[in-house]
Specification:
The protein is mainly beta. Helices cover about 15% and strands about 55% of the residues. A twelve-stranded antiparallel beta sheet has the order 6-5-4-3-2-1-12-11-10-9-8-7, with no helix packed on it.
């Protein structure tokens, strides 16, 4: 009788131990398989993305509707440890007016990718451009790290394929950063979005802030700003 009881206990213990091992193994496998979206902003020294950019500034009272067309290159130049002990990256930004001209450095930004978000220091202001994990309808305040009014960012079309400039990206994510409409005169429309591609980073940006006297905000614009930033190419130098 004691022999049978001991045998049952030993078998039960063995089964329990095996179950625990399988449970831990499954949890580890799930953690490994769960994609937080860190690849939407790679951090390879020398990696760059080139864009074609159009900026339009409207100021109707002084009859100004100025269009500026140029090319932009953003490159990860080096890494360093910031004042919080984190690994940060120096982003060198270059501009040129023509494809035939040489790149000229225009400014330097900084990026820090933590477990929770991507910080980008742009002209001495910090923006939370990405939030991890990356998934549809997830929201956060992109201005939480600066003194600006809150802007509620929202993920849309996560992990969807997209072709830009003839290049097919297998997984992209769109971020609506601003979508504000005021229907009283003057009509106001603010819309800002960015699109990121895995293993590349930012591939498209659209920024519009317009005040107009008509319901079609592309005509009768009184004041405002438009930015169109389109992917051209990427690589590592």
């Amino acid at each position: 009788m004691h022999f049978c009881t001991n045998l049952i206990i030993k078998r039960s213990s063995a089964l329990l131990g095996l179950s625990l091992v399988l449970l831990v193994s499954c949890r580890e496998d799930s953690a490994l398989e769960y994609d937080l979206g860190y690849d939407y902003y790679p951090e390879t020294i020398g990696a760059y993305v080139e864009y074609e950019v159009t900026e339009i500034v409207h100021d109707d009272p002084v009859a100004l509707h100025d269009t500026n067309h140029y090319y932009l290159k953003e490159q990860i130049e080096s890494s360093f440890i910031d004042d919080q002990g984190r690994t940060a990256y120096r982003l060198e930004r270059f501009k040129k007016d023509s494809l035939h001209h040489a790149w000229q450095i225009s400014d330097v930004w900084v990026s820090v990718k933590t477990e929770k978000h991507l910080e980008k220091v742009e002209e001495n202001e910090t923006f939370l451009r990405l939030l991890f994990s990356v998934k549809d309808d997830k929201e956060w305040d992109g201005n939480a790290a600066n003194t600006r009014d809150a802007w509620e960012y929202t993920y849309k079309d996560v992990n969807q394929p997209l072709t830009l400039s003839g290049v097919a990206f297998s997984e992209t994510a769109r971020i609506i950063q601003r979508d504000l409409r005021v229907t009283e005169i003057p009509i106001a429309h603010e819309y800002v979005e960015e699109i990121y591609a895995k293993d590349v980073g930012l591939v498209q940006k659209y920024h519009k802030e317009l005040r107009s006297i008509g319901f079609n905000d592309t005509t009768n614009v009184q004041e405002g700003y438009e930015l169109y930033m389109y992917y051209m190419s990427h690589g590592v130098e």
